[in-house]
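Section handout 9: paired folding examples.
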Amino acid sequence: MIFNKDTAQATAEYLLQIKAIKLDNANPFTWTSGIRSPIYCDNRKTLSYPRIRTFIRQQFTKLIHEEYGDVDVVAGVATGAIAHGVLVAQDLGVPFVYVRSSQKEHGLQNKIEGVVESGQSVVVVEDLISTGKSSLAAVDALREGGFYVKGMAAIFTYGLEKAIQSFKESNCMLKTLTDYNTLIQIAQEKGFIKESDISSLMEWRSNPEAWRR
């Protein structure tokens, strides 16, 4: 699922350094879904760091070239991936569109914002993959809009089994710059967590809903 090992390790270290990803077994975070989690991810923070922002853009561009080939359009998932998607589209010299989480209730009532031409190939840029539900809803919207979706590129994935199965069922390829396993490895090597934290972190990933219930 990760693009390549070196990129995965470098991306994970960057995310930890700027606290875009926080790990805390003692004081878990609560997601909007109600899941209690020892990890919190906000990759929008990367946009505030030019060097890291540039690195992510370059790696996304390289990933798309190597994994998906030529594309007609880049699509970002609102709201977290809009800025990264624009940067990648600029690098590739192709148009950009973005997909709303829900259809507008006024005006043209668009779910896809931008110029849509049926039959165009598109790669979807996402900042984070959790359960995969919102990400794949964007894929569905693009397909319904007439796009040929080549796949998705994301900064980070938790690697939850639910998401893995959902992407398979949707026949959508997913490639990421880094993932949960790499993050835990780098977090231990760089002293962000203790070795005693690892079992709990891996237990959470195997069954997030049941963790510490």
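Moving on to protein 2 of 2.
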Amino acid sequence: MSESAPAAERLRLLIVDDQPLIRRALAMTLGVESDIEVVGQAVDGIDAIEQALALVPDVIVMDLQMPRASGVVATREITAKLPSVGVVVLTTFDQDDLVFEAIRAGARAYLLKDAVEEEVLDTIRAVHRGESRLSPSIARKVMEQFRRFGALPAQVRAEEVPTPSPASAPPAAPVRASASSLEEPLTDKEERILQLISEGKSNKQIGATVFLAEGTVKNYVSRIMEKLHARSRTELAVRAVGRRG
């Protein structure tokens, strides 16, 4: 359990899951942390959107497969209206399409429900600090996907480049060329840090590897995001694998 934190500094958490037992178990487990306050529990995507807009939590733990509206739909709606809110996907599903859809919707982290309690807590706090996380199994799936196809899939890039007309050449080549032409070259140090991000390393771990202060690493990450036009650290990890494809 973490040290006691003033009420004003406590992380305000909204839990979203359609299964009552899981929802309550998460609330009990996470709510006992002295630096976390569970401010609400939502039963589906629509309820999640309504509660998020009403409560404006710091972080949302979001299931994906739910009635009325999915976690992807809820995440997209919430992050569009409340960009400061960090969404942590916590689900039993690890299909590639769901991973990419959740990332594109604005999720900053993606964990499976077999994650240990400490990993969930660490991820929630990291997202609150502005970081993003992928569980190791999800990170491996992302890398395998891009090694097979050698580029970001359509659903990851769809919002970033214009769709060619039917008379145009097949879309795959223009998508890669357009993204590449818009990206600024990375320095050797930035390339190394990007590689470590794709391996799921935290800023602290990256700093220890490349002998930089954690704050300096954070500045590097921000600059890399600007150069690659990425909206989140998770998207940087996706792009890193795509660049190696």
